[in-house]
Design a protein that fits this description.
The complex is a heterodimer. Chain A is an alpha+beta fold. Chain A is built from 20 helices and 19 strands. In chain A, helix 3 crosses helix 20. By secondary structure, chain B is mostly helical. Chain B folds into 2 domains: 115 residues, Serine Threonine Protein Phosphatase 5, Tetratricopeptide repeat, CATH 1.25.40; 56 residues. Chain B has 9 helices and no strands. The longest helix of chain B has 58 residues. At the A-B interface, helix 4, helix 6, helix 7, helix 19 and helix 20 of A face helix 1, helix 3, helix 5, helix 7 and helix 9 of B. Chain B: It is found in: Cell membrane. Chain B: Belongs to the YfgM family. Chain B: It is a single-pass type II membrane protein. Chain B: This is Ancillary SecYEG translocon subunit.
Chain lengths: 617, 209
């Protein structure tokens, strides 16, 4: 079919995603290890290095936090282990196997058959070479073959399943009553002595951290941009070039295609053009015949039968470039001249145009964009000079402020953990202002990028060493805390007493919350022991009572009102449960198997470079 | 061209050496050459074997959920012609799974027994034991199942083995034994294992109040 709509991009993304998922443990990219030197190895698995480059590939070049890094590296280690084991066991797919697998991927099919052209095109759209893609598929098959025996062949005994279905499906109806500590606060008192003792033994909790206040100058591209003038002409020009995206236009288009076969001789092409021009002339005379002539002449099988109607497209439509350009220039209802694309000649008509916004609405956006673009080069130059100036004239911010016409501002308190002012809340800045050079040497900090295209240099105004908060400041808090602790103890005692009374068959004057059902799985509120007790109360001797201390909430007594046995499972449900449980156990086996592989292959972790860690206090 | 005395002496030495060692050397070279060729041939053979086995395995994998008898036929083919390959045990496990799903427990058992007896991978043998014990339990042979699990090797599957042992003991009415087995499972499984709450529930259900 004629592919004016190259709509398959997402499809390939999905397919590539699936192939990567086949690895079970994340997307693998191989074939690049030769590019990176062994010196930079973060980990060596079976003699092969995992490098910084691999980490970046694994995260698609997205920056990751230091906490995430070990996890990503661990994934890569597991992936390499799996591939090493598959290789050792001779489970690498052969060429025919690889070809078979690729040829079965639907996205590469045309007319129900694998199409090499399509394959090339789709990979090109992903900026991937066939070699890269084939390596991925190969790794994926090897991993699946190695692990499939663990992940998908699990057999769960019916006996076990039946018991589990019963356990997981049965429920208890319970009512709760809560003895909250707040109700007992009135009965307790806390002595000054106790408060002092608590304060002394928790001294580290009552410490104010080291803090500084700074004066600073900030140079940003945004500031530069705001001062730049943009002419109406420039605005109009940009608007015209981007009107479809700016206005969120949706255009309903129709076309007639006069097909020029690929590699056609000039005389063939001329013949097609002549025919197209004839039809165009006819249409100009009789615009009403568009649908009829489209049916008669158009070689686009998708739209010809529809009178040429293609549908509605926005600025993000994947259409061949000349066609797209032409259709977004056309006024509503007017015919285009002949538009030449790789498929041949098109006559295009725009039936309708819908826009989400108006020129006036998007104008500020256009101005900001043009200012930003203009400011770009100015900012680069100034940023460099700024950095040099604050360093060379390190004893004052004034030269930099004068030179770049920036105000000298004063900050709120900054600790090593962060700053009060949001625009200064940046770990690099905190590190800089607490550095010896700035804090003790009283120099300007270097220029620090606190946000994209925003530089700050700061110097110390005021410094407060870490200090103990005086007892009087926190006395109230401590008293409250100790009272609650004591009250919680009282609540628990009272609760336990009432529970005993209830269990002995006495009626305690309690208000019960409305009843609710609980199951054995997924109850957050009840801890394991309570849950077990709730369920083990004999069903023929209800109500029964169970108590539990809940940190923060007090003492909770549960009254088990009734037992609801598990509903019978339909065959379909039983089958689904069986599959699901088998899959769960498959996962356990796979992860256990991979940890066994760690013992079977040599895995050497290198120490992380010193600058990778957070600054230490 | 004339050789000087020293050179003549060297030539004579060489001739004497050649007479006594030449044949041996030639034989050695030929043997090395033959060995190299055989090694190359062996590799090519191995590669073509792996290729064939891989294609059969791919067929099995693609048929999962389908006709158990067909999957078994392919698995048997792997066992017969490529018994040494890692594909054979994997094929047998797939065949066992398909058989068990179809309720053909005897057939499943035969496949699993083969893996336990023939696989070169300890983890895979233990995986087969877990499945074999499950199939035996469902055939009301708890003692055979316990015996199967008793043969488990020291792999990372110890937690799973303990859990299944608990299931079997409970089936035999041995609650105390089951409780101990589930506790062992909890101690051997990673804290974040997805089955851990199943074990906990099973254990809780046995807890004395």
């Amino acid at each position: 079919m004629f592919d004016i709509v190259q709509k398959n991009k997402t499809l390939v993304q999905i397919v590539l995603g699936l192939v990567a998922l086949g690895l079970v443990i994340g997307a693998g990219v191989s074939g690049y290890s030769a590019m990176s030197g062994a010196d930079h190895a973060l980990v060596k698995v079976d003699g092969k290095s995992i490098t910084e480059y691999d980490v970046q590939q694994a995260t698609n070049g997205q920056p990751i936090s230091n906490e995430m890094r070990p996890m990503v590296i661990e994934q890569l280690v597991q992936q390499r282990l799996v591939l090493a084991a598959a290789d050792k066991l001779g489970l690498n797919p052969s060429k025919p196997q690889l070809q078979q697998a690729i040829s079965q991927i639907d996205a590469f099919h045309e007319n129900g058959k694998f199409s090499p052209t399509r394959y090339q095109e789709m990979l090109a759209a992903q900026q991937m070479s066939p070699a890269m893609f084939e390596q991925r598929v190969r790794d994926s098959i090897a991993a699946r073959t190695l692990l499939g025996a663990y992940s998908v062949t699990n057999i769960v005994p019916q006996t076990t399943l039946a018991r589990m279905a019963k356990l997981v499906g049965e429920r208890r109806e319970v009512q709760a009553t809560v003895l909250a500590p707040s109700a007992f606060v009135g009965q307790v008192s806390v002595s000054a002595d106790e408060i002092k003792k608590y304060y002394d033994s928790h001294a580290s909790e009552f410490k104010a951290p080291e803090m500084v206040r700074v004066e600073y100058v900030m140079l940003s591209r945004q500031q530069i941009a705001a001062k730049l003038a943009v002419s109406d002409e420039e605005i109009q020009k940009y608007f015209d070039a981007h009107r479809a995206e700016l206005l969120g236009e949706q255009r309903d288009v129709a076309h007639i295609l006069f097909e020029v076969p690929k590699g056609a001789k000039p005389d063939v092409k001329a013949k097609v053009r002549a025919e197209a021009e004839k039809v165009l002339a006819e249409l100009k005379a009789n615009p009403g015949r568009f649908a009829e002539l489209a049916k008669q002449y158009s070689k686009d099988p998708g739209s010809a039968a529809n009178g040429g109607e293609l549908g509605v497209f926005g600025a993000d439509a994947s259409l061949v470039a000349p066609f797209k350009e032409a259709m977004f220039k056309l006024p509503k209802g007017q015919l285009s001249d002949l538009v030449e694309s790789e498929f041949g000649f098109h006559i295009i008509r725009v039936n309708d145009i819908q826009a989400k916004s108006t020129f006036e609405q998007v104008k500020p956006q256009v101005v900001a964009k043009l200012q930003g673009d203009k400011a770009e080069s100015q900012y680069r130059t100034q940023a460099q000079a700024f950095g040099e100036l604050v360093y060379q004239k390190g004893d004052s911010l004034k030269p930099a402020a004068d030179e770049f016409k920036l105000p000298i501002q004063q900050s709120g308190w900054i600790t090593r953990q962060g700053a009060q002012d949001p625009q200064l809340n940046n770990p690099k800045l905190a590190e800089a202002v607490f550095s010896d050079d700035v804090l003790k040497g009283k120099h300007n900090s270097e220029a620090i990028e606190v946000a994209p295209d925003t530089l700050v240099s700061a110097r110390i105004l005021e410094h407060k060493a870490a200090q103990q908060t005086p007892l009087d400041t926190v006395r109230g808090d401590i008293e409250q805390r100790l009272k609650l602790e004591k009250a919680a103890k009282l609540a628990a005692e009272a609760g336990a007493k009432q529970l005993a009374a209830l269990q002995a068959g006495q009626d305690a004057q309690l208000t019960w919350q409305p009843s609710r059902q609980v199951g054995r799985l997924g109850e957050r509120e009840l801890n394991s022991a309570t849950l077990a007790a709730v369920f083990s109360a004999p069903a023929d001797k209800l109500p029964a009572y169970v108590g539990q201390e809940v940190p923060g909430a007090g003492y909770v007594i549960f009254k088990v009102v009734s037992a609801i046995p598990a509903p019978p499972l339909s065959d379909e449900m039983a089958q689904r449960m069986r599959d699901e449980v088998a899959r769960t156990y498959g996962q356990v086996e796979v992860s256990k198997y991979i940890s066994d592989l760690k013992a079977a292959f040599k895995v050497e972790y290198r120490k992380a470079p010193a600058d990778a860690g957070n600054p230490v206090e | 061209m004339a050789f000087d005395l020293q050179e003549q002496e060297q030539i004579a030495d060489f001739k004497a050496w050649w007479n006594s060692w030449g044949k041996f050397l030639a034989t050695a070279v030929i043997l090395a050459l033959l060995g190299y060729l055989a090694w190359q041939g062996w590799h090519a053979y191995q590669k073509s074997q792996a290729e064939k086995a891989g294609l059969i395995y791919a067929r099995i994998e693609g048929a999962i959920g389908g006709d158990a008898a067909k999957i078994r036929a392919d698995a048997d083919l792997l066992k017969q012609d490529f018994s040494g390959s890692a594909y054979a045990s994997r094929g047998a496990l797939f065949a066992a799974k398909a058989s068990a799903d179809a309720g053909q427990l005897k057939e499943a058992e035969a496949q699993l027994n083969w893996v336990v007896a023939n696989s070169d991978e300890a983890d895979l043998r233990d995986a087969a034991r877990l499945r074999l014990a499950a199939v035996q339990l469902d055939q009301k042979q708890p003692d055979a199942a316990l015996k199967t699990l008793g043969g488990a090797e020291s792999t990372g599957f110890a937690g799973l083995v303990a859990e299944l042992r608990g299931d079997i003991l409970l089936d035999k009415g041995d609650s105390a034994g089951a409780r101990e087995a589930y506790k062992e499972a909890l101690s051997k499984l990673p804290k974040d294992a997805p089955n851990i709450q199943f074990v906990q529930v099973k254990l809780d259900a046995l807890q004395k109040v």
